[in-house]
User: Fold these one by one.
Assistant:
Number 1:
Amino acid sequence: MAKKVLIIGAVALGPKAAARCRRLDSNIEILMIDQGNFISYGGCGMPFYLSGEVDNVHALRQTSAHVNRDPDFFNDVKNVEVRIHTKALSIQKEDKTVSVENLDTGEKYDIAYDELVLGTGSSPIIPQIPGINLQNVCAISCLEEAMSIRENCAKSKLENVVIIGGGFTGMEVAVALADMWSLKCTLIKRSPRLLPSLISETISEMVRHDLGSLGIDVISEEEVLELRGENGEVKEVITSKRTLKAEQVIFAMGVKPNSEIAQKAGLDCNPRGGIRVNEYLQSSHPHIYAGGDCVVMKNIISGKEQHLPMGSLANRHGRIIGTNVAGGNPVCGMETFNGVVGSWCMKLAKGSASGTGLTVDEAKKAGFDAMSVNVEQLDRAHFYPEKDMMTLEVTVDKKTRRVLGMQGYCANGDALKARIDTVAAMLQFSKPTLNDLSNVEVAYSPPLASAMDVINTAANVADNVLSGVHNAISPAQFVELWEQRENNNYIFVDSRPAKASQILAEKYPDYWYSMPLEGFDKVISKLPQGKNIAFICNSGTRAYECQRKLKRTGRDSVNSAGGMQAMKKRGQEF
Ligand SMILES: Cc1cc2nc3c(=O)[nH]c(=O)nc-3n(C[C@H](O)[C@H](O)[C@H](O)COP(=O)(O)OP(=O)(O)OC[C@H]3O[C@@H](n4cnc5c(N)ncnc54)[C@H](O)[C@@H]3O)c2cc1C
């Protein structure tokens, strides 16, 4: 008898597992079920459908040859049977059956399997506050919701949109609606900063400023208490501090794993419902595999469990599960997955943000004695006409100099992603040190990179800081010193060329000193004694050289890492 593989969930993980399994074995009976209407679609593309960059929603569910990935396609092309509107109700793991319900007819029946795959994904977190059932209140978790939001936009019914939650999808949706439909978008979140577990304060402020360029307001540390409407349609959002107009409310507060049937079947799950799997992506029962948004994985760096609801992960998991349910790789046997490092990227309004590994705060929580430093450097050769300043922030364990993570922001998202991906690969397969990152061999050509690549520079700056050669402070720390200048006895020494540095020196003669690097040796003795010194320049490099020169005279100072470029990106004006 042919082996039977049953797959529950048919969006990202399920179809990938089915296709891989079929390519390895033409005899296995593969049945994929999903409670929804649409299968095998690019949910990650929904914000770009809202923005109009993807003009037809069906493009998200088509192959590159414009063929719809529907049940007929899977049946005819992949020899995989698909049943939509079919909900799995329970798993009888000892009998190897799953009870399901046909949602159209109400019919309930059992399906037998030899290997079961759970690709049940995740669901949006939606608080049960008053007004939650008003019209035009939704998440953006499926094509139907994306279609309804876009329809509302197209009918010109909307002026104000409130997005609740400060994660990726909330920001992507805000950018899409503010840019394409010129809507007033407000993003409300509980945490003090955007993506708190994924980006540092420095990059978070850059992201906030980027969103602000489209008029998107970010309201932090506020709780949404109630939605109010008229004639059944939402009109207002009431928070702990204010009332906002809103004809559309979108929940983007994160997701929780869909694991009810796994939990009911007694599979090992973590307290937040993530299904625990081993390196073969088997659950606590060897004939039940799980992957994608419904599982928790080990974070390779922190060693802790992490729920990483990412389409990229679901696809990689799907391939491994497809191989393993087919009996393994024909040569190497069962395939393994060694954990996640948490890589992500996101296009914003003027730039993109990306990261991998741990932020400094997350690293500290994980028990590392961590520090981070940010750098600004051109993403291509300085003499090449098209270029942009890239921000990178590297997280390092102080004692071992192990690199723990990197995040960044840059107008050129591809260039940024190339750097983050390099670090991601290093983090996933080794325990890289600053020396490794300083010497990692990346490709160079002037239109694409600079000879000393920005990731090598980030390592060198961190190394200088740890070696006590460079006393760098973050942009936020510099701003704090500036704001407290009447009390803290600091003067601010600007090492940029005179043309740039004199403007602020004339504006703030008591505090801001124009002392360009060229000629700094000659004026160094004019720096008033008894004052604390904070250096700044365009990117941090010239000021670092001045700091070294000053140190040779016996005086300590601090230098603003990333300089004026970092200040500009966070919207800081002097
Ligand atoms: C707006 C948006 C933007 C995103 N952007 C990105 C991005 O840029 N990059 C990125 O990496 N990720 C992104 N993601 C995340 C990505 O879409 C998910 O990680 C991915 O879809 C997870 O795939 P999955 O197959 O594990 O689960 P899902 O896509 O959640 O699919 C699970 C399916 O299983 C079905 N199901 C659940 N329980 C049952 C049951 N009992 N019976 C039958 N069917 C069931 C569900 O209805 C669903 O159809 C984005 C997500 C959204 C919503």
Number 2:
Amino acid sequence: MKFEDLRGILQYVPQFRERIFIIALDGAVMRLPNFGSLLQDIAVLQSLSIQVALVFGARLQIQELALTRGIKLSNDDGMGLTDQATLEVSADAISRLTSELVADLTALELRVAVPNALAVHPAGVIDGIDLEHTGRIERVDDRSLLAMLKEGLIPVLPPLGYDGRGVTLRLNSDAVALELAWALDASKIIYVSEEGLLDENQHRIAQLSVADAREMAKRKDASMDPSMASKLRHAALAAGDGVPRVHIVDGTQEEVLLAELFSNEGVGTMIHADDYQQIRKAKITDIPVLLSMMRQSVEDAALAPRTKEQIQKRIQDFFVLELDGNPVGTVAVHVYEMPDKAVVAELACLFVRRSHKNQGHGRRLVAFAEETAKQRGASTVFLLSTQASRFFEEKMGYVEVSPEALPTERREAYEKSGRNSRVLNKRV
Ligand SMILES: CC(C)(COP(=O)(O)OP(=O)(O)OC[C@H]1O[C@@H](n2cnc3c(N)ncnc32)[C@H](O)[C@@H]1OP(=O)(O)O)[C@@H](O)C(=O)NCCC(=O)NCCS
């Protein structure tokens, strides 16, 4: 690992400290060869003062146990009808899994508790079918869970609950994670799944809005596994109502938890409420990050070099696109008065981090800059570009003009720079 990686990681630590993360494990994930290292990563989170509650599913283990006992399951994910035989197999498989998990966590010197913290009722009759031993979570005992978390204990919540009459009911683990997150005001749910969420070209889907996650969960074709659909549905419910981020990560990947949480790009899918990104005014404290972000493009001659002092002097002209609290792009708007008193604006310093390209951020920053230019009294926006002129022409409707059209002081600087940029403009 490089020192700069460490710096990148440490920037998240203050923002995560004392926060509650709900980690929901698929039963299949607990069978993977790398499961031990996943638990170690949970220990790392705890050591950073992140409070972790663990939820797990048991579909695979329930299926296996049913097979050895020759029992036909009425459902294996706690969402449909749970008949008596299915409940018995599920309860046995879940108890075994609970003690395995507690043993594994204890071996890592983590302190755990298996609390009876869910008040559950039978789900009742849905669409004309009595779901029998399937439960619905009514209430979460948040006070006792918060006390445990404060004490440094990891609550482990199996997908089972008990109603006031002492009846055992089967729950869906995605729903347990959701109810916990709501009750504990958690910052994140991280669903560790047996696979990641991919698009039709088998590329990872890095981010999804609540609306997109909801739509995707409704997909009925073979490309959408019911277990993934359930995660997407619960993720959309969570992110749509107060849980700032929900992540779905592929548990088969090494170090997936840490890589998802402590890198800008992540390795899984993040479902976010729609306002997770913002373009804001740059601050003096942003300058080092801006300079380091832009370094590569300056080296490639796509951006003109700028010094710290140059940015500082015109800091009110600079804007930062922030994702999840981290700067990933920038743009500047400089205003000039022409001899005929017309006001024009220069769009400059447009940059999007390599890891976030092709997600519409460039266009968003240009549109924002144009709006800012208008607000600052300009009717025309111009820019100088060496490598992105086609982007501006094809995506944003700019046209090439002669350098003669530049404001005098800008034209002098242009000639002096020798960069031979193309000059483009657009009426706004
Ligand atoms: C130019 C830049 C800001 C675009 O950012 P972005 O967030 O990737 O842009 P968007 O996601 O909004 O748009 C991507 C689209 O523009 C196209 N595009 C991006 N850069 C391009 C370029 N230099 N020339 C032509 N097309 C380009 C992409 O192919 C993509 O097209 P598609 O939607 O048809 O697939 C980014 O590539 C960058 O930071 N480049 C280095 C710095 C630079 O050149 N800045 C301009 C200084 S004037």
Number 3:
Amino acid sequence: MAQTNISNNGKLSVMEAIQSRRTIFKFKPDPVPKNILEDILYAGIWAPNHHLTEPWRFTVLGETVKLTLAERYSEIQIEKVTSNPEAAKATTEETLAEIGERGFQKFMSKPTIVAVSCIKEGNEQRQLEDYASVCCSMQNIQLAGWEQGIGMQWSTGAITMENGTYNLLDINPKNEYIIGFYYIGYPEEIPTPKRKPLNHVLRWVD
Ligand SMILES: Cc1cc2nc3c(=O)[nH]c(=O)nc-3n(C[C@H](O)[C@H](O)[C@H](O)COP(=O)(O)O)c2cc1C
């Protein structure tokens, strides 16, 4: 992990932003101010979108919901151990409590959390295309954030899929589904990038 300050006053070219953006796991504690968060999410509504269905929805989590989800996140970490009989047998109550506490602190360390969801409407093709559009929207959001020195982690962990989360966020799973949570904030650490060279994935056909 490289410790880097990516504050760049909006001077990145598109290619520089694309290449230098990294998924961020460790954040400084400061939340992203509301006006800056709105500027970043605004980039999301300009994603390409077949038939202009505008299927993206953004739900910003408030402190009460965040606390409730942090408690549930902590339980999930414990359940990961207890659901495996061998691991459960080998783990003391004290260790389980530590795992739970670490989970709680980990979730609470994400300064700003946005659930990104997609409206579920129409036939299979429409749903695929709408999913693709929301993913494009999410990349716009990451790049707009990165330009302002703000990093994110796209998460599809269990907490993003549970009925309890849908209830808390007031999202009706019959007509909308959560694609992921964005954990957002000012990076404490920037991971080093990993990609194969382009020629590993590029074909030209005559
Ligand atoms: C659809 C999708 C789901 C992801 N879910 C997770 C996740 O649940 N947990 C996680 O740590 N990272 C998740 N990521 C982030 C990837 O792990 C990350 O993009 C990858 O490691 C490449 O790193 P980079 O974004 O810094 O290039 C997800 C990314 C995408 C596109």
Number 4:
Amino acid sequence: MNRRSFVLASAAAATTLPMHAAADNPVRVGVVGTGGRGTGLIRIASKIPGVAFPALCDINAQNLARAQDLVMSAGGAKPEGYTGEEDYRRLAARDDLDAVIIAAPWHWHTPMAVASMKAGKYTAIEVPAALTIDECRQLVDTHEETGTPCMMLENWSFRRDNLAVLTMIRAGLLGEINHCHCAHSHDCTYWYFDKEGNPRWSGEYLIKRNADQYPTHSLGPVLSWMDWNCGDYPAYLTATATRSISVPNYFRKKYGKDSPQAKRVLKQGDIVTSVVKTIKGNTLVINNDMQSPRPYDNRWEISGTEGVYNEQRNAVYIAGVSPKQDTWEPFEPYQHKYDHAWYKQLERDAPQAIRSQEGHGAPDFLELLLFTNAVRTKGPTPIDIYDSVLMCAPIHLSEQSIANGSAPVPFPDFTRGKWKTRKPHFGVVS
Ligand SMILES: NC(=O)c1ccc[n+]([C@@H]2O[C@H](COP(=O)([O-])OP(=O)(O)OC[C@H]3O[C@@H](n4cnc5c(N)ncnc54)[C@H](O)[C@@H]3O)[C@@H](O)[C@H]2O)c1
């Protein structure tokens, strides 16, 4: 990669530094939580020249040491290690850090991000940033009080196909948008339970909550496709959950029908379907399905008055443009024609990053490049706090709706009315 990558243009970094500034102006990042994802993020961000890791924090000494070794093997100095449960506060207070990335278990995300913003550090939080409406509000309030930028690292917002679809929507190809479907269907049984079938920290949530626990990967691209927070806003949500049979079935086969693992009662239904109605009158279906044996699937589809895009079919149909009436045409030529400016620039300046299989490939690299670029230029982050919390709100709202017989639950307005006048911002390149 050459240094031009650092001026990757974005709304976040409309005023970029000169290209030679990267080395003179390093971005110093502290990471809290160096487990699977935290380590992956360090590995990817280490490929961005000028990004340094002076300090890392993890209560697990082995995970911490592994991450310290990783930084050193990428050519960095040994980061100072913190191991206490509340040491994220000491890390955030360091005056040699510009930013903090949080990749700890979910219940730590909001308290850690609040501490980091209060310490004046640019903050990036792994998904989901918040678990309750109260936590969403804490993040917004702290951001507004401190003025410190904070973003959730929702990597699917940065997928190449999703960004091309955004460009198509903004060019008016689908007409006026009225409906969207999205899903996060991913068999994560291995991530919820350890090798003996005991719940990991993540599995504890399946025992105590019945909700769409992970709506951000489905919603990531949808927010900007549907102009949420900038012209439209979700009014209310209804949610319905299936019974909980997949995990017990999995453990029955593995350990026998009388095993404690098979008899464990989970609150979490296998599949949660939420329906959202927006103030403009549009609708969105969100599926969450993370315990069933099945291949990965996001099932994105978005439609408007002129056409429809379908991710599963990798196809589009545009009235009067597609060659055959009522017949899908391949998405590929549209992907090429409407490729987002971020990817055009990555293609020119960092083609190996696009081909990389590290993490989830290009989207992970792009989100970290844009985040560190925002830190370096002191600009806004590519995903702002309002979009971050709106992607998390369905967790609590779906839980409330399910508990009340699928009753509609209103979305709080985290923008305090600003969604009516805010202009589209995500992915807008000046
Ligand atoms: N965006 C993505 O594609 C993606 C992929 C995987 C995971 N994630 C998210 O990343 C986060 C971490 O998931 P993971 O799979 O890496 O989990 P993990 O269990 O592998 O790692 C969590 C780490 O946090 C540490 N930790 C716990 N409490 C801590 C504390 N008080 N202070 C410091 N460290 C603490 C643990 O010791 C562990 O090393 C989750 O929010 C998860 O949802 C996102």
